[in-house]
UniProtKB/TrEMBL annotation:
It holds the Pfam family tRNA-synt_2b. GO terms for cellular component: cytosol. Signal peptide: none annotated. It comes from Litoreibacter meonggei. Gene3D superfamilies: Anticodon-binding domain, Bira Bifunctional Protein, Domain 2. This is Proline--tRNA ligase.
Length: 445
């Protein structure tokens, strides 16, 4: 992409309504624009990152064997009356009437609808296990929408649902989700710690939230610092393997890590003092096992092996796809702007032309642009007629992990400069080597 043709409405001033750094940078980098409280338009740069994150979620769900599908955002109130949640959801549910005066609503989550789909089509235990998920817009009329996409009213969420014959099978589904979530967040360059949480309105007693540590997080968390040493890495997982998934689950959840809702001071005090940490975290996902709560309320049964109808065991699992943009920025930025992890960056690298209009510099930039594109990489070429300082400031703000700087002086010696956004370190090298180096870095992501 050429900057001269892109839509990147960068703001010079710091927007006064933004209280936290991710919200400030998303507005300043022209990623989002508020349309009303807690409701945003996603401008090209923000949309690109949103899609990258969504894509990682899809890839990891598919790896775990879960089936993608899509349910409507506007739903009839009838199903929600059946489960009892039409009233229970309270003011967070946006209720609408259609022209025939029928009660409709904008989906805050989708347990009811998926359970209805399930009971309409699945009759036998032989069709289990089954896990389906969607990535779809949700609406919750939050009392205090704030912090930009972190707590929006309209937000993008992955919600998945498993149907199993027995509690044991459903607990395997729970573990499988936990494992796949660990891998999902790590690919985004994030450490999201599974913490024992409270199931609230969802019911059931098995639930973990995934938290990214950040000073601006809304949740208070208590953990054994040894949990931050755990990494998932590139281990091979067979998601059908019950013992393997249970093993990973145990490895990542036995050390103390809890949100304030489930915090137990006495247990916490058993952790060696120097490892006891109290901090703040951003909830980027949650998994639940809630047994037969919905299947009993909504009569979602299958014929068991003995021919008798049994209610299925269920769980649901969510990832805050749009919130993740904020969480990643909170975890990865400096005073100049965002620092995107390679896995989610909107463009793989920036190209800064120090002397636009200079034949040699323009030619070298075009050649770099072509070679990178030919390798399947997406560079963002700042080809505007602007001062170098302004170009650097924009690149730093939008946070591409790598920048190639091209100027007449370097070109005389046959070199360009490759700079890491994270470390600020620069290295001079021939243009072909810069291309090779960038290609090698992204081969791993
Ligand atoms: P919270 O406690 O932050 O209100 P929740 O526990 O009600 O969230 P879930 O029903 O678990 O949310 O939804 C799954 C995920 O969706 C959450 O882990 C979070 O990342 C994201 N999410 C929930 N509410 C919002 C919101 N208002 N704006 C953006 N993302 C949200
Ligand atoms: Mg939650």
């Amino acid at each position: 992409m050429r900057m001269s043709r892109y839509f990147l409405p960068v703001l010079k001033e710091t927007p006064s309504e933004a209280q936290i750094v991710s919200h400030r940078y998303m507005l300043r980098a022209g990623m989002i624009k508020q349309s009303s409280a807690g409701i945003y338009s996603w401008l090209p740069l923000g949309y690109k990152v949103l899609k990258k994150i969504e894509n990682i979620v899809h890839e990891e769900q598919s790896r775990a064997g879960h089936l993608p599908m899509l349910m409507p955002t506007i739903q009839s109130a009838d199903l929600w009356r059946e489960s009892g949640r039409y009233e229970a959801f309270g003011d967070e549910m946006l209720r609408i009437k259609d022209r025939h005066d029928r009660d409709m609503l904008f989906t805050p989550t989708a347990e009811e609808l998926i359970t209805d789909i399930f009971r309409s089509h699945v009759n036998s235990y032989k069709d289990l296990p089954l896990t389906m998920y969607q990535i779809q817009w949700k609406f919750r009329d939050e009392v205090r929408p704030r912090f930009g996409v972190m707590r929006g009213r309209e937000f993008y969420m992955k919600d998945g649902y498993n149907f199993d014959l027995t509690k044991e099978d459903a607990l395997h589904a729970y573990n499988r989700h936990l494992v796949s979530y660990l891998r999902t967040y790590e690919r985004m360059g994030l450490q999201a710690i599974p913490m024992r949480a409270d199931s609230g309105a969802m019911g059931g007693d098995n639930t973990h939230e995934f938290l990214v540590l950040a000073e601006t997080g809304e949740s208070e968390v208590f953990y054994d610092s040894a949990v931050t040493d755990l990494t998932f890495g590139d281990r091979e997982i067979d998601y059908d393997n019950v013992e393997q998934c249970a093993g990973v689950m145990e490895e990542f959840t036995t050390k103390y890590a809890r949100t304030d809702e489930t915090h137990d001071e006495a247990l916490f005090n058993e952790v060696p003092e120097e490892r006891r940490k109290v901090a703040r975290g951003i909830e980027v996902g949650q998994i639940f096992y809630f047994g037969t709560k919905y299947s009993e309320a909504m009569k979602a049964t299958v014929q068991g092996p003995d021919g008798k109808p049994v209610p299925v065991h269920m769980g649901s699992h969510g990832i805050g796809v749009s919130r993740l943009l904020g969480a990643i920025i909170e975890a990865s930025h400096d005073d100049k702007g965002i620092i995107w992890p390679e896995g989610v960056t909107p463009f793989h690298c920036g190209i800064v032309n120090l002397k636009q209009g200079d034949e040699e510099a323009d030619g070298a930039c075009e050649a770099l642009y072509k070679s990178l594109t030919a390798l399947g990489l997406e560079p963002l070429y700042d080809d505007r007629n602007e001062r170098a300082g302004g170009k650097f400031a924009t690149m730093d703000l939008i946070g591409l992990p790598w920048r190639i700087t091209v100027g007449p002086r370097g070109l005389k010696n046959g070199v360009v400069e490759l700079t890491s956004r994270r470390t600020g370190e620069s290295e001079e090298m021939p243009p072909e080597d810069a291309v090779k180096k960038i290609a090698a870095i992204y081969a791993e992501h």
